[in-house]
Amino acid sequence: MHKKKGILAGFAILPVAGLITTGVATADQPDSAQAAGCADKMIFEVGGHRDGDATVYDKSNAALPAGVDFTKIHYSAEIAPFPGDTKSLDDSVAEGLQKLDKEVRDFHAACPSSQITISGYSQGAIVAGDQLARLSQENSVPHDQINGVLYGDPRRPGGEGPGGIEGNLPTIIPGLTMKGERGFGDLKVQEICNKNDGICFSENPITNLLGFANGVVGYFSGDHAYDINPNSENGGGDRVIDQPPRVPHGPPLPIPAKTPYEQFNGDLPTAQKEMTKIREGLLAKLPAELRDRLNEFPWLSVPGGSGA
């Protein structure tokens, strides 16, 4: 798709999967980088589940200052077996990653002096984080020109508390591969996570089932939502936003138990059997109105699990 260069007013987002939409803030007196058709900073944005057009970024995009541009990565954003989805998490993430990788590399080739911010929310944080991890292992883009901002990242490394769900639960459904935590080398990547968000802050259900239940309840109760504004983030590290718990719980049991991911990932039959037990225990801890919604939490959609 042809992209206009130079000083442009932001234009409407095309709601067609597979297209890349670029908008830019206007400036009365553009600097040399803008005059050459390059923004001072480009923000690459990847939305979460069922937000393949990254609309979660629209509010912050409308307030971008002069010299800052954005590129939305349009992809399927599905997580089968979530009700109504047909594409697996693995295929959807691979699609988004392929598009993001091409856009980042094409932009850097055209604008080699510009700063690059890569941001993703939820499922989009998997895509954006995987791209940041890839760039951290090569020198195709100077590392001091890249930063990342991830919201509700399922692969968030444990730091201030436990990490994301992909480093906690094992793979139990082909196509929904739990890849574990990942790092970013010397890249500045800001991980932003709500304490009640069971996607990025996932307690070990073996040692703290109530804590794990708190994250599931938080996911369904609005704690997986964030104030999205990647242009305001310039540092790196792990930022956990404290919240009063949805389900009262204490610290993990003081026993040396590994996470289910560490114990069972790679052994699909055993993982399915053990996660069925955990799911049954979780159902007893959930409020009654959420028990029938557990099929909307596909990471626990194990064969034979009740409440699906």
What's the helix and strand layout?
Elements: E1 20-24, H1 32-35, E2 41-46, H2 58-61, E3 68-73, H3 89-110, E4 115-121, H4 123-136, E5 146-151, E6 188-194, H5 209-220, E7 237-241, H6 260-264, H7 268-285, H8 288-291
Parallel strand pairs: 2-3, 2-4, 4-5, 5-6, 6-7
Antiparallel strand pairs: 1-3
Helix pairs in contact: 3-4, 5-7
Keywords: Disulfide bond, Hydrolase, Secreted, Serine esterase, Signal
Family: Belongs to the cutinase family.
GO cellular component, one term: extracellular region
Quickly describe the structure.
This protein has helices at residues 32-35, 58-61, 89-110, 123-136, 209-220, 260-264, 268-285, 288-291, and strands at residues 20-24, 41-46, 68-73, 115-121, 146-151, 188-194, 237-241. The protein is an alpha/beta fold and 308 residues long.
